[in-house]
Amino acid sequence: MQRILIVEDDPRMLELLTSILEAEGYAVDVTDNGQAGIERAMSNPLPDALILDLNMRDVLGWDVIRSIRGASVGSDVPILVLSAFGSAQDRDEAFDAGCTAYESKPVDRDRLIDRVKAVLKSRSR
């Protein structure tokens, strides 16, 4: 079973994402802050993918991405940014930091599942 780590500080969004992904058969691990997201992304068992909000209270998502990409363990985990920030500048900065894919909120269920499958497939290449 593939494991998805969700780093999201909005409890309602966290619950919604968890429900959608578990219904699709994924194992889901969650945290509501960026620092814990960094730690969990680099600890065993490593997640198969990470879904990340950019606007976190403690560590901004861009910094979470940079920390993970700069680590020796877990640096290749695909990162799907799911954020209310939808400007071209926000997207560009997320990709420059090292995200694999970017979706603006709100995202519908089918689109989310398609993006998760795509980022998981990108890791197997």
TrEMBL record:
Domain Response regulatory: 3-120
SUPFAM superfamilies reported in the protein's UniProt record: CheY-like
Xref: InterPro entries: Bact_response_regulator (IPR050595), CheY-like_superfamily (IPR011006), Sig_transdc_resp-reg_receiver (IPR001789)
GO biological-process terms attached to the record: phosphorelay signal transduction system
Modification type 4-aspartylphosphate: residues: D53
SMART domains: REC (SM00448)
Keywords from the named record: Phosphoprotein
PROSITE patterns for this protein: RESPONSE_REGULATORY (PS50110)
Protein's recorded name: Response regulator
Source organism (scientific name): Pacificispira spongiicola
Organism ancestry: Bacteria, Pseudomonadati, Pseudomonadota, Alphaproteobacteria, Rhodospirillales
